[in-house]
Amino acid sequence: MSVLDSLVFDNRFSEELPSDSVTVNAPRQVRGALFSRVEPTPTSAPSVIARSDEMLELLGITEEQANSAEFVDMVSGNLVLPGLDSFAMRYGGHQFGNWAGQLGDGRAINLGELSTPDHGRQTLQLKGAGPTPYSRSADGLAVLRSSVREFITSEAMFHLGVPTTRALSLALTGDEVMRDMLYDGNPALEPGAVVCRVAPSFIRFGSFELPSSLNEIDLLTTLADFTIREYFPDLWPDDGRPNGQTYADFYGQVVRSTADMINHWQRVGFVHGVMNTDNMSILGLTIDYGPYGWLEDYDPDWTPNTTDRHGKRYRFANQAGVGHWNLMQLANALVPLVDDPKMLQDGLDGYVAYFREGHQEMFAAKLGLAAWDVDRDDQLMLDLLDLMAAAETDMTLFYRGLANVSTDDGVSADDRFAPLLEAFYLPDEQLTDELRGGWDAWLDRYCARVRSDGTANGKRKEAMDATNPLYVMRNYLAQLAIDASTEGDHSKISELLDVMGNPYTEQPGMERFAEKRPDWARTRVGCSMLSCSS
Ligand code: AMP
Ligand code: MG
Description:
Blueprint: H1 12-16, E1 35-37, E2 47-51, H2 53-59, H3 63-66, H4 69-76, E3 87-89, E4 92-95, E5 98-102, E6 108-115, E7 121-127, H5 144-160, E8 166-179, E9 188-199, H6 205-213, H7 217-231, H8 244-268, E10 270-271, E11 293-294, H9 319-334, H10 342-367, H11 374-390, H12 395-402, H13 413-421, H14 427-430, H15 433-453, H16 457-465, H17 475-486, H18 491-500
Antiparallel strand pairs: 1-3, 2-8, 4-5, 6-7, 7-9, 8-9, 10-11
Helix pairs in contact: 5-17, 5-18, 6-7, 6-9, 8-9, 8-10, 9-10, 11-15, 17-18
The chain binds adenosine monophosphate and magnesium ion (MG).
Adenosine monophosphate binds at residues 103-107, 134-135, 138-141, 274, 278-279, 288, 290, 532.
């Protein structure tokens, strides 16, 4: 008898789809299968250092169960419960614009699909639980710093209202892992960790690209049918026989959910950092938190990922365009399923207009406008973004401050501007008279625009504060939690999780989590720059 006996698993993916016939856990090219069965590697001294109580509840896991040794073993990879069927998914992907062939879950192991009380089947996946057939020359492990970042931020994103995979737990393994953090020839041992991630499914664009690229059309069809039946049931035809139109409709939904996800990223200032097609969820969830970051001073050209320093492919302002490019790769992969590629082309073509519409709606909300008026508001937005980029302006604090600006007639320019001052990093040096003049002129237009809607200041603030977060997972906050955790104090992780659980509401006593990035973090590794090493 195990205390976890009440958990019911219903492993559709591994039960229904073709598996790798080779069962040896060694790196190889896998053919004709969508996954390989593999068990996590046991760890020497696992301990859970943080967990999400909300996820426990969502999954129907009790406090008593979560406190048990079995739970610790399950979420660190030491125990594969009866009923679980652990496996690594096979997928490919375009990395930084180039086709990379087979990638697959090199250090993620799906435990199985848990039947939850109210949220259907949820896949539990361990990240950093040891090598799989897809590990290539790497170790299948993950270190504490990147695991803290993934654990907190996937939960924080959920509370920001951004579609995302979630995290149940963060465990130390008790083992050490060698990493060359900056790829500069200075490897060091770091604490190993495992995050238990949760999502309805971890199927990616690359899951379709790989079989398609190898002309494994039966496999591609099987995966598409499974995905549609399980996750897009409204599209599943009554006669159970999907046709070209079914696949095109499925693609159209992926186009829209991807656009929605990226619009949310733009709203909160999130830069994913590695939008390779293997890191694009077919469900439009933010997935694979690596060298991501938050815009602090608004710089549309910023990318947190040092590996992307030169091309800046994944910079903030390029995320919508990369979404389009990635969707084009997915369309290419699905071509064998439709009668005419034009059916997919139409879906892809719809992206631009759909994204723009969503972006306008999103920006109207950020600015507290009743609706977007293209003729007036496009230019208002472009001029605002130019002003924000002209001096280092904290994006998050700016929008919160703007909600406090009075749009009433007759307010002095200084009084009107006062709520925005806090957002400037270097007001004495950068907020020149000329720039200040630019802001005053913009605010004249903005205030007139809001008045034309007839929205009262209080009502506008309420609406704006509901869409412009106050607390975001600034890199330096994550880094402080990582530093403390590395020294054995894990309490800062749970504290951050709590604050980020309510990002739109001022929390008395928590002001320090809403502050601008301090000066020391400007150039510190982990705060302003991150590599893919994790
Ligand atoms: P990522 O950029 O983290 O999405 O990873 C790209 C590919 O490399 C995926 O196939 C990962 O599974 C694999 N990978 C990344 N880190 C490791 C590692 N430490 N061990 C094995 N595979 C890894
Ligand atoms: Mg990945």
